[in-house]
């Protein structure tokens, strides 16, 4: 091989400089700067020429190869055009004016847009994944906006608090109170300007406006509308003095009910309608803004009379207080706790184990679990967004790595670091804006779907608010820009000597880029796996709730509720005869297998809790008396609802008339008659005053356990008593077990009720399963959100794995070609690539499992039937990540096998 002639190299150095000046001529640089750049690039070309000659290339081939690098169309010529259009003369290094800065930013955006179009495939994947993450965050922000940010439609919202009881013995953290509690709190409180109460869900019969209809009424303190700071949309609200006896026959319609049943007729104000047989004057229509949460189910409002105090253990009232100016929630809680202790000392039998507390109005609007779920959703979508942003950073790093030669030439031509950072960040901003637009559109569709699927009227207020739009725009700009800064800063400090040398090769490995990209892949996998574990826990919870044994068989059962109002039904004996006549009619209908009447539908309505003393035993202190939920029903209660009798018998008609018989459930038998049968035992109900009520009651049977209103709690002890034992039979639920078409049976039931009494108003006839499923419908909706967000996180993470694997293969193309040329097999190459990705996936999986368990432990209050560290879920999720990562890595790994070793060696 002919040794390299240094003299020839020096003579060629002048030629290199002439060739460089030819390329730089269109830039119109000042001579000094042009000479400086020409000298630097000429030295690079001379070094490259020497390297090729030392490798055995002929002088002619070496020179032609070096010049080919200088004249590379995709690099130098393209960069020349870019620098010509740049706002500031980079070669001169001058500082741009403000106008030049704006113009330069516009040029950066245009150039970035061309690159996105040029690499449209990769750009589409990045925009789509980031758009999905922004959409997920937008949906959750929309929920948070509705619950937290939007102003409440109460004029005094900042000073309104809701008062609840907490009963740890019975697992109830938001226990409503009784009307008797309301009067005590109102009389003793000094921290509130006013205390009001309302009791929703009271079914009334409205006549005088067409056919009799069943309406859902809220009995409310007369001063409530003024205390809340709410004005009527039409007419006026209830006046404070209209709660007095003789003045309480007024009503305010809800806006929804007014529109549906009175066709939004403005002349309705002043009209008289009959409610439970008593004339009420419609004085106004409430503002539609108040129809949120449970208030959206109310048809009309009527005043509470002071003498309408219900028993202390009838806890169905929501109590709210208006803080005095300067009073705080902490002060209110201190006073409420003291008042609660006084009530407990005076009424230990009815208030044992209860503590009173106050929370803000906003917190009370949603259920306690809603806030936990919202916080959990926020964590999940935040992780999804981080996964997507890490994906953006990975792509930006890969793109910057592929453009090392371009960036090195830019720096060699005089581009400042700030100029390069601005260019790369501008490209990230374009990705963000495109993703933000698509993400907001997807978020709008997601909110619409949530509204259509949610059974809660409160969520019908979801919309694309100004807050949500601002959040989406801010996120679409901030997320990609923040995660594009790191790659931009890293790429803006190139090693000119190495990068310019690397430009002539197809493959070069950048250690600094590989480390950052590897860390990003580990992060993506960890976050995605944590999201999948949390979503798996929610899915298992919903499945467990839907398959928990209810203790009854609701399928094939239709339910409705009927009121028996005066004057036709003046006492309970007349009501009882009418109920029995209706049951006879229903039982005689074709296709009806059984029919029963009851005071409350099990699980759905909730039942009063009663204390009792067992005959023959020394009763404990009043606070520790046995307790049980009391179910009131007719003789065929168990057969109609599918509650099996496990011991003893049902009561007879004669025993039912005496009211001194009862059936208990397994849980009551286990707790209070341990080791022996309760059949034949006797007990006596203890009233709220602590004194016995009525005669001793004989236990004649034992039935299976039926769950309470909280499906996640064990079945409570329960006693079943005949209809005649009810304190009042004004409102009764009917259940009918049918065979065949439920729609035809519903028409038959309604005809039977009409035939019994045309003035009876029945609520909508619905399947019992519909009412029971309502408690899990929101859980299923939340489950769908978690599954969707987890799917987004998985897709984004897998995309990141694919991108990093492809980049790894591209950077090591030369090495892979050499390995193949030296005899490496396809399996060896695949093992090289798979081994690296397996290490990254393994590290991410380890971190993700730990993170998922930590989040699962924090959400323990909403889990049911599953542990936060459930190994099956963790193993399944790790396997899913592993398989997805392997599939994502396979395509670029397989592509590596198509590298031509001969072509690689020729280029060397």
Name a few traits of the molecule.
908 residues; alpha+beta; 4 domains; six-stranded mixed beta barrel; six-stranded mixed barrel; 22 strands; 54% helix; disordered N terminus
Give the secondary structure arrangement, pairings included.
Layout: H1 6-24, H2 31-54, H3 59-70, H4 73-85, H5 98-118, H6 120-149, E1 160-167, E2 172-175, H7 179-188, E3 192-207, E4 213-220, H8 224-228, E5 232-235, E6 250-253, H9 255-261, E7 272-275, E8 278-286, E9 300-303, E10 318-323, H10 329-346, H11 348-351, E11 354-360, H12 361-365, H13 368-402, H14 404-412, H15 417-453, H16 466-491, H17 496-502, H18 511-546, E12 557-563, H19 572-588, E13 592-598, E14 609-614, E15 627-633, H20 637-641, E16 645-648, H21 653-658, E17 661-665, H22 666-672, E18 682-686, E19 692-703, E20 718-722, E21 731-738, H23 742-756, E22 766-767, H24 768-811, H25 813-821, H26 826-858, H27 871-896, H28 901-907
Parallel strand pairs: 4-9, 6-8, 15-20, 17-19
Antiparallel strand pairs: 1-2, 1-10, 1-11, 3-4, 3-7, 3-10, 5-8, 6-9, 7-8, 12-21, 12-22, 13-21, 14-15, 14-18, 16-19, 17-20, 18-19
Helix pairs in contact: 1-2, 2-3, 4-14, 5-15, 6-13, 6-15, 6-16, 6-24, 7-10, 13-16, 13-18, 13-24, 14-17, 15-16, 18-24, 18-26, 18-27, 19-23, 24-27, 25-28, 26-27
Biggest sheet strand line-up = 3-4-9-6-8-7
> Helical element count?
28
Radius of gyration, taken over Cα atoms and rounded to an integer in Å: 38 Å
Total beta strand runs: 22
Task: Determine the N-to-C terminus distance.
Answer: 17 Å
Strand content: 15-25%
Count of folded domains? 4
pLDDT < 50 runs, ≥5 residues: 1-11, 81-100, 502-509
Structural class comes to alpha+beta
Largest sheet: 6 strands, mixed, barrel
- Level of helix content? 40-55%
Oligomer: single chain
Q: Mean pLDDT, as a whole number?
A: 79
Choose one word for the global shape.
elongated
């Amino acid at each position: 091989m002919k040794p390299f002639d240094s003299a020839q190299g020096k003579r060629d150095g002048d030629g290199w400089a002439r060739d460089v000046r030819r390329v730089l001529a269109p830039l119109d640089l000042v001579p000094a700067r042009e000479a400086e750049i020409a000298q630097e690039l000429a030295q690079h070309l001379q070094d490259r020429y020497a390297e090729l000659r030392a490798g055995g290339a002929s002088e002619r081939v070496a020179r032609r190869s070096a010049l080919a690098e200088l004249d590379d169309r995709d690099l130098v010529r393209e960069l020349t055009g870019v620098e010509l259009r740049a706002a500031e003369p980079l070669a001169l290094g001058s500082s741009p004016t403000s106008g030049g800065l704006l113009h330069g930013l516009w040029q950066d955006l245009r150039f970035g847009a061309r690159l996105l179009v040029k690499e449209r495939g990769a750009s589409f994947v990045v925009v789509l994944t980031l758009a999905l993450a922004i959409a997920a965050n937008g949906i959750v922000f929309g929920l948070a906006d509705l619950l937290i940010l939007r102003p409440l439609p109460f004029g005094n919202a900042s000073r309104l608090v809701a008062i609840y009881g907490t009963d740890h013995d019975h697992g109830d953290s938001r226990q409503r109170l009784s009307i008797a509690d309301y009067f005590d709190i109102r009389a003793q409180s000094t921290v509130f300007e006013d205390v009001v109460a309302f009791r929703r869900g009271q079914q009334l019969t409205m006549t005088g406006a067409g056919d009799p209809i069943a309406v859902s009424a809220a009995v409310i303190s007369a001063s409530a509308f003024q205390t809340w700071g709410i004005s009527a949309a039409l007419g006026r609200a209830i006046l404070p003095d209209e709660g007095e006896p003789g003045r309480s026959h007024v009503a305010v319609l809800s806006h929804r009910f007014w529109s549906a049943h009175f066709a939004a007729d403005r002349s309705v104000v002043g009209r008289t309608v009959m409610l439970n047989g008593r004339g009420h004057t419609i004085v106004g229509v409430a503002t539609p803004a108040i129809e949120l949460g449970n208030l959206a189910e109310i048809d009309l409002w009527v005043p509470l009379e002071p003498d309408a105090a219900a028993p202390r253990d009838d806890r169905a009232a929501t109590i709210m207080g208006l803080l005095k100016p300067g009073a705080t929630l902490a002060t209110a809680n201190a006073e409420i706790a003291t008042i609660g202790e006084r009530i407990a000392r005076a009424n230990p039998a009815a208030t044992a184990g209860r503590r009173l507390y106050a929370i803000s109005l906003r917190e009370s609007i949603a259920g306690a679990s809603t806030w936990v779920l919202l916080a959990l959703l926020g964590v999940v979508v935040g992780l999804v967004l981080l996964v997507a942003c890490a994906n953006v950073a990975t792509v930006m790093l890969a793109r910057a790595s592929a453009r090392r030669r371009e960036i090195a030439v830019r720096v060699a031509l005089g581009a400042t670091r700030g100029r390069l950072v601005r260019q790369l960040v501008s490209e990230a901003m374009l990705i963000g804006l495109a993703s933000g637009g698509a993400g907001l559109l997807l978020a709008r569709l997601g909110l619409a779907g949530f509204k259509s699927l949610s059974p809660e009227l409160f969520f019908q207020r979801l919309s694309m608010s100004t807050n949500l739009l601002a959040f989406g725009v801010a996120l679409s700009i901030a997320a990609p820009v923040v995660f594009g800064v790191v790659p931009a800063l890293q790429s803006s400090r190139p090693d000119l000597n190495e990068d310019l040398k690397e430009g002539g090769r197809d493959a070069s490995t950048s250690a600094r880029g590989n480390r950052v990209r590897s860390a990003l892949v580990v992060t993506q996998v960890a976050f995605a796996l944590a999201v999948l574990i949390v979503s798996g826990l929610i899915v298992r919870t919903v499945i467990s709730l839907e398959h928990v044994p209810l203790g009854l068989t609701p399928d094939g059962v239709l339910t409705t509720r009927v009121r028996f109002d005066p004057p036709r039904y003046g006492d309970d004996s007349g009501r009882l005869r009418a109920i029995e006549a209706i049951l006879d009619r229903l039982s005689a209908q074709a296709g009806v297998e059984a029919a029963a009447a009851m005071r409350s539908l099990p699980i759905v309505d909730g039942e009063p809790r009663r204390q009792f003393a067992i005959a023959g035993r020394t009763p404990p202190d009043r606070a520790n008396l046995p307790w049980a939920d009391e179910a009131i029903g007719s003789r065929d209660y168990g057969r109609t609802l599918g509650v099996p009798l496990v011991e003893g018998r049902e009561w007879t008609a004669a025993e039912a008339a005496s009211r001194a018989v009862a059936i208990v459930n397994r849980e009551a038998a286990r707790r209070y008659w341990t080791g022996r049968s309760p059949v034949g035992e006797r007990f006596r109900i203890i009233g709220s005053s602590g004194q016995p009520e009525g005669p001793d009651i004989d236990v004649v049977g034992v039935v299976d356990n039926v769950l309470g209103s909280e499906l996640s709690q064990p079945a409570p002890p329960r006693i079943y008593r005949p209809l005649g034992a009810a304190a009042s039979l004004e409102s009764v639920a009917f259940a009918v077990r049918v065979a065949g078409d439920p729609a035809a049976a519903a028409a038959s039931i309604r005809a039977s009720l009409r035939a019994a009494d045309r003035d009876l108003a029945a609520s909508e006839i619905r399947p019992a399963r519909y009412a029971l499923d309502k408690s899990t419908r929101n859980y299923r909706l939340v489950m769908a959100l978690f599954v969707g967000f987890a799917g987004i996180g998985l897709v984004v993470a897998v995309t990141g794995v694919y991108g990093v694997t492809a980049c790894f293969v591209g950077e090591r193309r030369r090495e892979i070609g050499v390995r193949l040329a030296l005899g490496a097999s396809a399996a060896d190459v695949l093992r090289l690539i798979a081994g690296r990705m397996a290490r990254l996936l393994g590290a991410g999986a380890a971190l993700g499992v730990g993170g998922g368990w930590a989040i699962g432990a924090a959400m323990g209050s909403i889990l049911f039937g599953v542990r936060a560290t459930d190994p099956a879920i963790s193993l399944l999720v790790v396997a899913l990540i592993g398989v997805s990562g392997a599939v994502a890595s396979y395509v670029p790994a397989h592509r590596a096998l198509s590298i031509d070793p001969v072509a690689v060696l020729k280029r060397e």
